[in-house]
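Sample A.
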Amino acid sequence: MAKKIAITNQKGGVGKTTVAINLAGALNQVGEDVLFVDLDPQGNATEGLGFTGEYDDASGPSLYDTLLSDQSTINDILVDHDELRLAPSNIEMFNAEPELITEMRNRERLDMALEQLDADPDYIIIDCPPWLGILTDSALLACDSIVVPGLAESTSTRAVEILFDQVDTIEENFDETIAVDAIAANRVENDGESDEMMTWFRETFEPAVPVYEIRKRVALKRAWSNGTSIFHHEEECDMGDVFLEMAEVVR
């Protein structure tokens, strides 16, 4: 059985997709077979992995069809990347959230889709939308655990608290247990605000949940632009070691 990990924070702009792609790359680097599900209608991970054409193609089938129709399965939409297999997002995914509202078992659709996988990867990384709603709830219901990215700035405090309130609600309403594997404090800089937030992250979550410090590195941006994780990028980057540590924790 694949371990399913949702990368989630309803606050936008926290580097969620960077964390998701590089954690997937780290798992691949240590020999794991990874399926990446881009559940975000914005398709940043799909673009960041080099599949802009698949995102823009409205001729179908797509992840939208997988979640809302019995005419295709997730196996029909998978594409191969050097480091993983990808269930790409698609422009039609912007219609998924409102249309799922009236569907039966709407928050279970992703879990039902993953049950139809022909292959059995070691890990499934789910990149969630940057908001709370049916799609994020479906990822929380489908996953075994979460990794929470958050900026090292004061606005992260409330966002993380709201996310954990939602996790508690899902656990209570659906009788599920969702583990927290790690906190990824992202885009850390050498300033007072970052220092204060790192102290907050560590005092709030450690030692129960490890906190990883992801510093701003141009190499991470260039790897994304080249459609790969830092591990298949030509430049060396000290953040690779951090993602490898995170991969060992989630395994």
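Sample B, a different protein:
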Amino acid sequence: MRHWLIANTRAGGGARGADFWRPRLARAGIAAPEVRDIADEKWEAELAPGDTVLVAGGDGSVNRVAGVCLARDAILGVLPSGTANDFARNLALPEDPDALCALMARGPTARLDVGWLDDRLFLNVVHVGLGTLPATQASPRLKRWLGRFSYAAVLPQLRHLGLLRGFHARLEADDEPLEERWLSLAIASGAFFGGGSRVPGASPRDGRLTLVAVRPRPWWRLLLTFVITRLRGHTPEDDDSVLVRQPTTCHIAMSHGHRVTADGESLGHHREMTLRVEPAALRVIAGVG
């Protein structure tokens, strides 16, 4: 069984590429990993069941490598090197790079759920509406300079983009239908999005998705709901601006095509999509937590 180091030289400005991680991994006992750039697809065919793949990149890189690990029955290790690193937050990883590499060398494993949007894997969150702004409006330069705060930097554009009106969609969460206007739909497999924001009630180990649907409301009310949710860790019980459900499957049908993002990557415009969870599908190296 081999160790692989797959690096995205463009993630997070390129400061934590293979040259950053290789000496630290060597000191931890992983002296000669097979090193590949993520743009090189040849390594995928060489990956054997039981191999450990350490990916140095952001959520987009982790998403791609996770799909290969699922297909080849390999173990995924994450060396957070991107802007948001939301999937890594599910794994209780040490922040210190040397401690992280020591954990990768020990290799304690856990199994996490993954989500599927039709035939597309996602590990964090699928967004429609307001939640697509960070991926579609924040430039790479803005992300590099502001880090996780780039996700808040685009929010003042709401009025100019006309998103406060929302859009019409029919939701079926575990066959329970609900049809009205929505400002934002978020369907989560993991527990984090947007550089550390927690999805209310979500866990990557409960065998369920978490649907968070936001209704169009005055901006001040939505802001108050957001602040209370961040402080308490759950939405206010007497506030109908946010609907939270935890289905295993979810079907969304919209009257018009709308932009969809998954794990921060744009998937173009969709009118209909089906989402499901695959419980305990992905083997990962994880800390205690």
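Observation for Sample B: The radius of gyration is 19 Å.
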